[in-house]
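Suppose you are handed a protein chain with no further information: no name, no annotation, nothing but its sequence. What can you learn? This example shows the usual starting point.
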Amino acid sequence: MFLLGYLALWALGWGGDLPNSWRRSTGLAVGQGVCSYGDLPGYWTPVEGRTVGNWTLLNQDCQLEDVLGRHLSFAKSSNVLSSDDVGILILGDSADRNLIFDLCIEAGQQVQPFNINLTYVGPKTCNRGEEWGTYKDVVNCNTCRIPGLRVTKESIWGFYEGEPPEQRLGLPLERSQAGMELFKEEHGRYPDLVVLHSNYWDIAQIVLFRKWDAGEAEFVRTMQPWLHNAAKVATYLKAKAQETGMMLAYRTVQYPQLENVTESGAAKDHQIGQRYHVTYLNAAGRELARKFDMFLVDIELMFQKFWSTSDFLVDNHHLNRDANYEVLNIYLNLLRNAKRSSPHRRLASQAVKMS
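A reasonable first move is to predict its three-dimensional structure. Written in structure tokens, the prediction is:
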């Protein structure tokens, strides 16, 4: 089984060496020795039949490869699942669940349950709805496994501790720890990459749960508490990364389609606030990534002003399938580049087997 898994990863482009030109300092993450990809400037190359085309980087030393496309092609010719498969755990929200749905739909696979709800046990199966791509009990349907790749999401419900809904569903650090351990239990090891994506729930709690008018001045005052709480999760993940060799990334959020919804200062559409709510949230997230030396996947940089929001969103704030393809492909490029450019760096799969 180990040999099959190794050969599968080799076929997907995870083996081999990297040209010396890719090791230049320009565009490389500090201390990582690999291209940072997700925070580098770029542009969109049109592709027939796709709403947003391909994200193309201007840095010639750091070019994205279609790693996800190779995974999808491989999935059509193999049905072998292995603990050696590349593992990604996303600590995020429904935007990440949609990414997982889109991956399984693209691969013709069934989404699987992943539930660590701290107060009740959810359904053990994910029943496909009447329409392709819809599932009942979707809050528990958070894993897509295809040959060579596993992507799982665990909701952390933002970083505002002690407020609803955390009182019912567990604090973000608890959920992150439980998600990591359940991933290891189900997959046989810790993930190779953990993506931290604090999300629209943070905005929702300010705008709705706290009953504020959610003015700009009020939102500004939440930035330092947000960083304080987020640092608890990042500190835990950093320690795990040093222990296992896994990589860490932070993902920003995109602007909603309805950018300035104001009705008595509150957002009524999908719990999304005004444009500056997203701006401040992303600023705090970038600082968290900098402080904890995480890779940054800057969705705001990728999508803002290139396209009308209707071109890359399926509703007010969820990316469509073509856009999610590009985001997941960046995650996979980060892992592939780290694997190929740093032979001394062990992915979590190797660290667990050798420990």
